[in-house]
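Lab meeting minutes (informal)
Scribe: AK
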Amino acid sequence: MSFFISEAVAATSDAATTATQGQAGGLSMLVMPLLFLFIFYFMLWRPQSKRAKEQRELVDGLQKGDEIVTTGGMLGKVSEVSDKFLTVTIAADTVIKMQRNAVSTVLPKGTIKTL
């Protein structure tokens, strides 16, 4: 008979320990995804949105006479600006029309002459 009582006491204390561990495990299961979201935000999403904002400001600020570098690597001088397209002079009688989003960098004035 005492054999059954000791098993019952052991089972009760094991159940209490398991319940306490289950509560702690649930909290850690909630903390880990939040930690991953925090890391994802500061390592990936925030810097990418900052770069996109800077590119948008660069494209919106283009004016006639700006010297630019395209994403393809061509240098040119903006000769006309419209809503979605630019007319760029890349050589003495060579004019191309391109999308505004293809501009990667605006160079300081006079850079093309020094090259």
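Next up, CB showed the second protein from the same session:
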Amino acid sequence: MDHINVKIFATEGSVVNWPELIPVFHRWIRDNEVPGTPIDVADYAHVPNGPGILLIAHEAMFSVDNRAGRLGFLYNRRTPAEGDVTAKVRDAYDTAVSVAKKLEAEIRGVKFEPSRFEIFVNDRALAPNNEETDRVVRPAVEALCAGRVAGVVQIVAESADPRTLYRLQVKPAA
């Protein structure tokens, strides 16, 4: 199972000055400050509820994302990673949290909450949104939460619609 993505949601009240991200991401490319081989920056901040500003690397894309009006930091793994599904989920989560915290330290106005996130597989052919994919991915997410997230969490499928990506929302239990 590859193409595992993690979006760490921003805390309530966070705001982003989109143009401020561009020079930060360009410096990260120049100084090789993110995992992998960083290549370019793309500005989609003009797209409502869209992908925001992306730092594109060979292995992954890093972005401050606003899909569905939910601000967060997105790690989008593009190439195969090593290990089993649990290791891949853990690696994607750890990378997302690490780079999100790095970004928090460099820009004002946004904080990310590692206990509120979503994990999804960005490949409907590899991981259709169905029970079989859930049987493979959900235990890996549960193991991640047991080892990385303090407190009790809820893990909820976003949608059962087979036309959408398989996506799990994780948040602290009410």
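CB comment: Residues 85-106 form the longest helix (22 residues).
No objections, moving on.
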